[in-house]
Design a protein that fits this description.
Pfam families: RecO_C, RecO_N
Keywords: DNA damage, DNA recombination, DNA repair
Protein name: DNA repair protein RecO
Strand content: 15-25%
Function: Involved in DNA repair and RecF pathway recombination.
Shape: globular
Domain DNA replication/recombination mediator RecO N-terminal: 4-72
Helix content: 25-40%
Number of strands: 8
Number of helices: 7
Largest sheet: 5 strands, mixed, barrel
Structural class: alpha+beta
Amino acid sequence: MQPAPAFLLHKRPYRETSALVELLTLHHGRVRAVAQGVQRPGSRSRGRLQPFAPLHVTWVGEGELKRLRLMEGRGSAALLAGEGLLCGLYANELLTRVLPVELPVPEVFAFYTAMLEVLPRPEGRAGALRRLEVAALEALDAWPRFTDPEGGELDPQRRYVLDPASRAFVAGEGGIDGRTLRLLARGDWAEPGLAGPAKAVTRAALAPLLGSRSLRSRELMRQLAQRRRAGSH
C-alpha cells in the first residue's frame, strides 16, 4: 500500500517493547495497529509516534488489528499547552470512542488537521472543536435534523430539546429556542451568542454514541475551569 497520512489518537504499551495504537488516517478512518518495538529505548519510531504530529504510515493484516510496517514523520507536531492541549486530547479521545474501525471519514481527517492549526490560539478553539464534532456526527449519520419529529419547521418562539431516537427536536423546558436552532441548521455558527447553544447541540447528539462512560478529557477541562474560577476570586 502507499503510505497513508495519519495522526496518532491513542497509544498504550503492549508486551515488552511494542504499543497498541489508534490512528486517524485519511482514507481508512480509525485504524488499530501494533507498533512493534516502538517502546524500545533508542527507537527512532518512538520519537515520531507522538500525538498531534503528522505521519505517513503503512500496515499489513486482514483483521481488525493491523501491524504497522512503515511510520515516517511528515511535519512538526502542533505545539499545544494548557487549554489548547486539553482540547486536542478531547478531540483524540472523542474520535477514538465514536468512530468505527476502518470507516473512511476524509472530512473528519480534514477538520482534524485544520483544528490542530487553530488550537494554539484561544479565540478559535471552540469553533474548531464544533466543526470537528459536526463532521464526525455527519459521517456517522447522527447529525440532528433540525425539525420536529414529523419533519415540520421549528417555531422560533418555542424551546426545544433533542430527541436522540428520532434525531429531531421536541418541545421542552430548558431547551434552545427555535430561532437559534434555525441559525445552527443553516450553519451560522459564527453568529454572536451561538457558541453555547452549538456546544449544547453537539453534546446532546454525541451522548448516545458515547454511552454512560464519561470522557476523561472533559473532566480535565472542567477541573481546569474550576481552578481558573477559584484563582480569580
